[in-house]
């Protein structure tokens, strides 16, 4: 059985002080232990949060990383640096990075391989634009993104990857995909994984849905057989809301 994973992506939000207050609130909320809860925070807050979360079951993630260990890459932070800090997760290939920073599938692949080599769990994002959906290309686009991101990864490493299906049109718009539609695409992604890497690995890889997920709608996604959690932006910015999301994803104590 795949462990549900709820990851909060703070994007470019929160100072160090705000981040600390947030963590103190979720730590006082007694999150369920059968859900992997992860906070993906801005680089500047990671060092402080790593100390704050020491010994806690809440995971800490970054939102991007460079694949090279070090070098003349002004403004970049390497996977190696995250590993040194003890960061456990990294979001890769988010549509905002693909759109605003021209990140390519080839770069996402290099970053994914580097993260796995460093023992960091990559949360690899894929998803179609509204134009791609309306022209009937959703399956083609997401399966191509998945295949390119995972190209060349050793089969004994693949199961560690987390995929996040995030239709671009649903991100930050309040226009969430219905659970049925998200399940249809995610089931197709799992089918793609089966044909590329075999059933055993495909059954192990966790696939999240992302795009306007809130405490009020998360149960509908968690009820779907192929959806293993959520990658949440806006609704993860408030610690009570994030706690509510994690609780609702619990199979033991959830309100589904
Ligand atoms: O990484 C998170 C996604 O971009 C979803 O953002 P959202 O929950 O604000 O729609």
UniProtKB/TrEMBL annotation:
Keywords: Cytoplasm, Gluconeogenesis, Glycolysis, Isomerase. Substrate binds at residues 9-11, 172, 212, 233-234. One of its GO terms (biological process) is glycerol catabolic process. It is found in: Cytoplasm. Its main location: cytoplasm. The active site is at residues 94, 166. It catalyses: D-glyceraldehyde 3-phosphate = dihydroxyacetone phosphate. GO terms for molecular function: triose-phosphate isomerase activity. SUPFAM superfamilies: Triosephosphate isomerase (TIM). It holds the Pfam family TIM. InterPro entries: Aldolase_TIM, TIM_sf, TrioseP_Isoase_bac/euk, Triosephosphate_isomerase, Triosephosphate_isomerase_AS. GO terms for cellular component: cytosol. Its EC number is 5.3.1.1. Pathway: Carbohydrate degradation; glycolysis; D-glyceraldehyde 3-phosphate from glycerone phosphate: step 1/1; Carbohydrate biosynthesis; gluconeogenesis. Homodimer. Belongs to the triosephosphate isomerase family. Involved in the gluconeogenesis. Catalyzes stereospecifically the conversion of dihydroxyacetone phosphate (DHAP) to D-glyceraldehyde-3-phosphate (G3P). NCBIfam families: tim (TIGR00419). This is Triosephosphate isomerase. It comes from Croceifilum oryzae.
